[in-house]
């Protein structure tokens, strides 16, 4: 590691319309070092990274950010202050000396150009390669990131790639010019668990090979433990603690750091709730769910093919218990949830409280009341044009149309109180819109909406993955409380082993549409039998 820092940030301040969001922070990154910038949403992590490259629009930035001269520059060339450079000079540094991987590759990649064209464009602009040379180099870069069939993938558009492949393409683009510093903004948040550590291992190997420094922005402490050399903890625009990863994890000094470290979900469930006299809340036997697909060639003119997304799934979900479903993208988790919700046809046996989905709309409406869903991203699942009262009370209008406006409003207020949101805490609560709440508060609204019709079961599709660790812990405690008080059953889709440990009574491990392993949560986590489960649990732990 170089004695002189590659990047030395001093008294960095960033403000919007007079409100300071980064409040005079200092940190450094040495050549070849991996520094993790950790904190909750709104702490200033991403704004700090973007401000180094002049990518924060409408912000007032001050301080200094000295970036060391490169090895190709004459001896004694002084460091450049990134914050003092013109837009023209910064354009020369972006992508060449300092590159960035953004959090969501689907929005960062241009949907109108193939992945290969977008990587080749960087090589043509920054290194002056011809179109043919740049295209060949783009294929080589994709191969370096481990994408299968790189020549074919280079011709693909972003929507034709999986989440992990899109992120690898982003990494290939960022590393095209072999930058000396990589800014990685939550590079694994949108990925499945089986891909997360793969991506970090890929970054670590490329970093070591190229001697590149990495500034990793994340809220995932488990990834920091696996990846980084040093850690800097941010709270409300300030760096409150810095140090080597091993030292900070072993002995955190600041109360906020200790709060982050103590945010591991706590198991607080009834281990063996009484099953009652009725049938299981959900029961499946040899369940098969498939999608029609177009066959290639002339065959496609006369008949459709079939893609089997769930093959022969069997399980029981008793009242008051949680069934955790884990697996990578394409494993069939979400398709299984769609079948349970009656949103996709299935074959085999599927019963909810002893009843099956059918063709009778009235019967299906009664069954739909018994199973509700809470989605991963509460911001996109709540209508921005509806007030809290309209959102939470929507189910009552459908399933209990005879209620008066006053009766419906009373039940909405009670449901909000049940999830910890009162009008005393939030003035004009019923008249507010989703954008006026934080992520955790929006997820509470989504839970309140699901509970309004008193369901027997909730399908929880990654209900905390979009939340910070401290907020995640609060939402899980709320879900556990509601399960204890109401005897709710949960089908929990998640990639987080900490969430599974805290919530699940049983586990299903899915891959390629099949259930590879199932059983009591404690047994599966302590002694996984299938090699894939062993890999999954090992990566998550």
CATH homologous superfamily caption of the largest domain? P-loop containing nucleotide triphosphate hydrolases
Major β-sheet profile: 6 strands, mixed
Model regions low in confidence, pLDDT < 50 over at least 5 residues:
none
Portion in helices:
25-40%
Number of strands: 19
What strand line-up does the widest sheet have? Answer: 6-7-8-3-9-10
Structural class: alpha/beta
- The radius of gyration computed from the alpha-carbon positions, rounded to a whole number of angstroms, is 26 Å
The CATH architecture assignment of the largest domain turns out to be 3-Layer(aba) Sandwich
Identify the overall geometry: globular
CATH class of the largest domain: Alpha Beta
CATH topology of the largest domain: Rossmann fold
Share of residues in strands: 15-25%
Give the end-to-end Cα distance, rounded to a whole number of Å: 29 Å
H/I helix tally: 23
Number of domains: 3
Whole-number average pLDDT? 88
Would you kindly provide a brief summary of this structure?
This protein is an alpha/beta fold.
Structure, described:
The protein is an alpha/beta fold. Strand 1 and strand 2 (19-30) form a beta hairpin. It has three domains: 5-97 and 179-261, 3-Layer(aba) Sandwich (Rossmann fold); 108-178, no CATH class; 282-540, P-loop containing nucleotide triphosphate hydrolases (Rossmann fold), CATH 3.40.50. Helix 4 packs across helix 5 (131-144) and helix 5 (131-144) crosses helix 7 (163-174). It has 23 helices and 19 strands. It is globular, with a radius of gyration of 26 Å. The protein has a six-stranded mixed beta sheet, with helices on both faces. Helices cover 38% and strands 24% of the residues.
